[in-house]
Amino acid sequence: MSPLLIPIFALSIPIIALLGKFVAKPYFEQREKQLEIEASLVAEKAAQYAAQVERLEQRMRVLERIVTDRGLALSDEIDRLREEPLN
Q1: Which of 37, 14, 17 is nearest to 25 (CA)?
Q2: How far is CA 78 from CA 65, 69, 84, in A?
Q3: With contact defined as beta carbons under 8 Å apart, do 72 and 66 qualify?
Q4: What is the distance between the alpha carbons of residues 62 and 52, in angstroms, rounded to a whole number?
């Protein structure tokens, strides 16, 4: 190994460390902030979808009550009896 390589390697270590500090650290901090913003947007969309699903479930419960309600069946039966001819 050449005696010149040892000082080159010795100087390259702090240079790489400084590059990591001044180049990589700001990049990773910026990327972390970007991911936090994206995560909050995804959470907001998930909350909107959950609210929409809840509204749809409530509407389905109302429709199920209307369809299975005995009063509706009784009303239909009364209407059928009115339409039958009297013999």
Answers
A1: 17
A2: 20, 15, 10
A3: yes
A4: 15
Higher per-residue pLDDT: 47 or 16: 47
Report the domain count for the chain.
1
**Single-letter code of the amino acid located at 42:** V
Rounded to 5 degrees, φ, ψ at 76 are: -65, -40
Q: Residue 86 CB: number of other CB atoms within 10 A?
A: 3
Domain membership of residue 69 as a residue range: 5-83
| Dist. CA 65–CA 35, nearest whole Å | 45
Confidence class for position 87, pLDDT limits 50, 70, 90: low
pTM of the complete model: 0.52
In 1-87, alpha helices (H): 5-19, 25-68, 70-83
Tokens of 18: 């400084």
Backbone φ, ψ for residue 86 (5° rounding): -80, 125
